[in-house]
Amino acid sequence: MKNQYVFKWLFVTLFLTMATLKMSAQKGSISGNIVDGNNFYLPGANVVIPSLKKGSITDFDGKFSILSIPTGNYKLEISFLGYEDIMQEVEVLENETTTLTIKMKQKSLLLNEVVVVSYGLSGQAKALNTQKNNINITNVVSTDQIGKFPDANIGDAVKRISGVTMQVDQGEARNIIVRGLSPQLNSVTLNGSRIPSAEGDNRNVQMDLIPSDMIQTIELTKAVTPDMDADALGGSVNLVTATAPQKFRLSSTLGSGISFITNKRILNGSLLVGDRTKDKKFGWMVAASINDTDFGSDNVEATWSDEFEYYTGIDDTNGDPILDDVAVNPYTNSFEIRKYLVQRVRRSFSANLDYQINPNHNIYFKSMYNWRDDRENRYRVKYEMQDAEDIEMGDFTITNGVPSRFPAKVSRETKGGIDNNRNKSRRLEDQRMQNYSLGGKHFFGKLKADWMVSYAKASEERKNERYAKYKTKFSVVNDFSDAEFPLMYAEFATDESDFENFEFDEITEQYQYTEEEDVNFFTHFELPLNLFDNKNGKIKFGARGRFKNKSRNNNFLEYNLESVYSTMNLTGLKDFSKDDFLAGNQYQLGSFIDANWLGSLNLVNGESVPSEFLRANFDVTENVWAGYVMTTQNITENFQTLVGVRLETTSLEATGNKIENEEDLVGTITEKNNYTNVLPGVHFRYTPNKNTVLRFAWTNTLARPNYVDLIPTIDVVSGDEEIFVGNPNLKPTTSMNFDILGEYYFKNVGILSGGVFYKEIDNFVYQFQSEINSDFYGQGTTGYRVYQPLNGEKANILGAEFSFQRQLDFLPSFAKNLSIYVNYTFLTSKAEGIRNEEGEERQDLDLPNTAPNMLNASLGYADKVFNARFSTNFSDAYIDEIGGNAFEDRYYDQQLFLDFNFGVVLSKKLRLFGELKNITNQPLRYFQSVRSRTQQAEYYGQRLTFGLKYDIY
To answer: No. of H helices and E strands in the chain?
Structure first.
């Protein structure tokens, strides 16, 4: 079936190509590059032959092409926001392609007889021109704009875009949420090729893996067109790397800094070198980047309960303890204090080549290799209420309806790794992402064709990850005076440091490896097609194949060293108590096993613990074939439309483990699933005047379920009376999307825009929790709690977006160099078909990961020598994980980040820069049910970096 689709596309392509070659007599073409005064490419420039009403928009490499032009002499008109218009004479010869390189000059504005020059706006001009001239709804950020913000990785840069918020990991933006839709519902591509995910259980692309200085342009598409992958429910982020310049260019940075939570250094550097041969045919560019940061976090975590039981002292006739319950208010029954120490080394390498065979044929190669090492130590003390049968009358105290004293199980745990040159006694998480693409762009008379094949791989490996845990029991005080900052501590202070009573629990070592490989290809073909009197219409069609394999292979070993290190005092200890714990001075860590001691242990003859890895291991193969056809037409001179349809067919094969009692492997289960989606789309673009654009879009998109949800695993955990079941028959989540947007572009390079959007979503995926009323999963499983991903019914999202950015050049004196950048997004959502643990449908529930309010704002200043910017990023609280009932729901709390950066021009080639991040010490925070009930609060402190940037161009 799939091969039939391919043959049909190839037949159509061949037929149209031959027909085109016959019809192209007495016509020629024009192609070329548009650059600025420094020979940097200008994407989004409008290139038009007014007499023919034919034109083109430059791509991200500043290239344009106009095909099928009758022979003769013409005037070419080039316009670019913020630059002076150009009229260029050109001669078109029969069956030849005339090539041009056109240099544009930045415009100066005359306000009240004063010439106003805009400094530092070239990047903004490039982004806004591309955004303005796209027929669909996009947001574009250029490399110059990225440099205006203190963003070390691409995730921190993306969060500046309207409608985007990011989930944070260790203080850096990692997972992207677009228009309130969770990370796995959005796609991320590199030069148009999908980036695989190194995450083991989902499709999330780690945005903190890619340094921001390796990317030339970020394009966020909020309304996809049929020639794009459809699995972008919220949006599609395309990261575009730099291409070979028009002439020699060298750019380098060298910097340092300090992370205040550890008072340790930061090192970073980058180098970009590129050039083109004298005949301009062959271009090359190589780039490298490194960032080495020693930082950490201070963390507290808690779980909440609204039930309390204790042992009455009486047993039933079977000898089982009889329990009684006490009506209580919500309280913390488990509490943790954690300290993380992390060294993150991020390296990136890129090499891009292109060769212009002749004016009609160009081939290119693009590559990127990202490699990140995360070395981490974690020190954790945990207080957990003992089981009800171990709590007797007199063991506990209830104060104002809250258990304020009770017996607890207490443990102290150290996470580390082996002592070698790679791990350095820390847990080493080795993440890598590599992408290699080969493509070409070709003209055959009227036919424009481009193609690309790519190979991409992402992996995450954790070798020799070690844990050492010791445990004891004592009575604790549960301090509930401030629910936002929960606290537990020993009723008798000496219990905390009586390490002779902390007994050996476990020393373990684990291995984890996750890998995803993607092979992609696509072909696009474009022909002139005018259905209306206005020219410049076209039809575009093509095909794509994406072949993915994802697997995870984990192992876990336990070592019994109780005879040698029976109590904690016999190990190597280190005291981590201090008065500047970022979550509050009331939290004192105390002493833990030293990570260096743990790393030095010679662990041999470990016992495998299948319960720790059997459910995690899987293998998934997913193949996607797609084809599309679309046409772009100018209904009038100012009214443009794009209409098309995309067909995607998906085949899936997933293998997981069938497990009993967590550790008994019964066998493997393999399931297959196939589905096809037909996805039409319509876009309208209306320009009532040169500076105003009105847009409307109706699109259909999808999102495939997370891998971990698709695995046909069955894991019966008798000890906990729990059953975990996969669901390979999950349907993809689909969405019908409507967008309306109005944009006004200021002459001095700025924008005012506003719009609304609506998404009607079917078959979203959520984690269902229920209690089984039969022995369906084996004898004695009646009453067990079952966890299984299911498709919900419907959800909808209604949102509004507003954006404003411009230089305040109407102000007097130095104030004319100020600029404002602000965007705001409002969302409201509703999800239907989500059932609670009783099987009843829950009402008035938001779709998970939909933040109702998101705001980005910055105030900047730029003149010839100095520039500075304060920037802030806010996202509102939203439901992150649906529990068995409303009390168990988990929420991701609101975030407010404030950053500052500056630059000083020391010479034409040399610039000083500095930046201060997270001025507000914003924590990562989760809460349970209501904001006052903290589940997790993790603080990162501030980071200061500074350095020099050197450019030759």
So the answer is: 6, 54
Provide the sign of the torsion angle of the four alpha carbons 323, 716, 767, 614, taken in this order.
Answer: positive
How far CA 559 is from CA of 9, 503, 596, 604, 687, in Å, comes to 59, 15, 18, 8, 71
Measured distance CA(936)–CA(924) in Å, rounded: 8
Q: How far apart are CA 891 and CA 878, in angstroms?
A: 6
Beta strands 503-528; 538-559: pairing state = antiparallel
Query: Residue 570: CB partners within 8 Å, gap ≥ 6?
Result: 564
What residues does 476 pair with on adjacent strands? 406, 490
Neighbours of 636 (CB within 10 A): 10
Neighbour tally for 859: CB within 10 Å: 15
- Of residues 16, 43, 214, the one with CA closest to residue 123: 43
- Rounded-to-10 torsion of CA 427, 264, 344, 940: 90
920 neighbors 936 (Cβ within 8 angstroms): no
Tokens representing 384? 């957990």
CB 788, CB 828: distance < 8 Å: no
Tell me the pLDDT tens digit for each residue of 561-603.
Answer: 999 999 999 999 999 988 889 999 999 999 999 999 999 999 9
Compute the distance between CA of residue 822 and CA of residue 859 in angstroms, rounded to an integer: 9
DSSP-derived letter for residue 949 is: E
Span 36-80, pLDDT tens digits: 877 888 888 889 988 888 888 888 888 888 888 899 999 999 988
In degrees and rounded to multiples of 5, residue 399 shows phi and psi of -120, 120
Beta bridge partners of 456: 435, 518
Q: Please name every residue paired with 459 in a beta bridge, in sequence order, or none if there are none.
A: 432, 515
Residue 602 C-alpha from the chain's centroid: 39
Looking at residue 301, its amino acid is: E
Burial of 195 (0-12, 13-18, 19+ CB in 10 A): buried
For residue 147, give the DSSP letter: H
Q: Tokens at residue 66, please?
A: 């106009």
Helix (H, G, I), strand (E, B) or coil at 730: coil
User: Residue 486 contacts by C-beta under 8 Å, 6 or more apart in sequence?
Assistant: 300, 302, 332, 335, 479, 480, 934
Interatomic CA distance for residues 49 and 66, integer angstroms = 9
- Cα–chain center distance at 104: 35
Say whether pLDDT at 145 is over 60. Answer: no
CA distance 4 to 928: 52
Residue 6 phi, psi (nearest 5): -65, -45
In this structure, what DSSP letter does residue 317 have?
T
Contact 467, 419 (CB under 8 A): no
pTM, entire model = 0.87
φ, ψ dihedrals at 661, nearest 5°: 55, 35
d(CA 184, CA 708): 12
In tens, the pLDDT along 805-825 reads 988 988 898 899 999 989 999
Q: Say which residues have a Cβ less than 8 Å from residue 244's Cβ, sequence separation at least 6.
A: 274, 275, 276, 283, 284, 285, 352, 353, 354
* Phi, psi for residue 212 in degrees, rounded to 5: -70, -30
Q: Are 91 and 73 in contact (CB under 8 A)?
A: yes
Pairing verdict, β 487-490 and 427-444: unpaired
Interatomic CA distance for residues 215 and 370, integer angstroms? 12
DSSP 208: G
Q: What DSSP string describes 750-815?
A: EEEEEEEEEEEEES-EEEEEEE--S-TTSTT-TT-EEEEEEE--EEEEEEEEEEEEEE-TTSSGGG
Among all chains, which residue has been given the structure tokens 């949420």? Answer: 177
Q: What are phi and psi for residue 110, nearest 5 degrees?
A: -105, 110
935-951: burial string, b at 16+ Cβ within 10 Å, e else: bbbbbbbbbbbbbebee
- Classify residue 361 by burial, with Cβ atoms within 10 Å: 0-12, 13-18, 19+: middle
